[in-house]
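hey can u run this one w/ flavin-adenine dinucleotide bound, need the structure tokens asap thx
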Amino acid sequence: PPDVEQLGRSTWTFLHTTAAYYPDKPTMAHRVNMLSLLRALPVLYPCSVCATHLGETMKTHPPDVSSRAALSRWLCEQHNEVNERLGKEKFDCSIEKLDERWKDGPAD
Ligand code: FAD
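ok here u go:
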């Protein structure tokens, strides 16, 4: 079976980085493709417990693909949901903190 922790770190890296570089003004094609990517996860993610949880939280809190900031925040909140469940610290979902972690790096 996959290493759920390694898989999780890699997947979060991919998702948060992709959100950090998503357009401020996405075209219809950007939105449709991002929605497909996110909606595929509860079906395909190779940790079935994780996939089931994600499917449940996505039902009550549907993805917001309307802008880079909205998507980054939505994803941060989904990740915080998992953090909370696993007893990990919550992340500050402001765009400044998200960009520092996933786009720009710390200011010097
Ligand atoms: P991770 O949680 O992997 O975080 C990686 C880095 O992201 C952190 O070091 C931090 O810099 C940054 N970060 C942390 N929180 C946020 C945030 N809210 N927003 C932006 N950046 C943040 N594991 C389970 O055991 N059970 C589950 O049900 C489960 N569900 C998952 C569902 C999904 C969709 C994914 C992608 C992973 C899931 N995982 C689950 C794995 C789990 O979330 C962690 O990836 C894993 O436990 C490793 O944790 P970590 O402490 O190394 O950091």
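The helical segments are 4-20, 28-44, 48-60, 68-85, 95-104. anyway lmk if its weird
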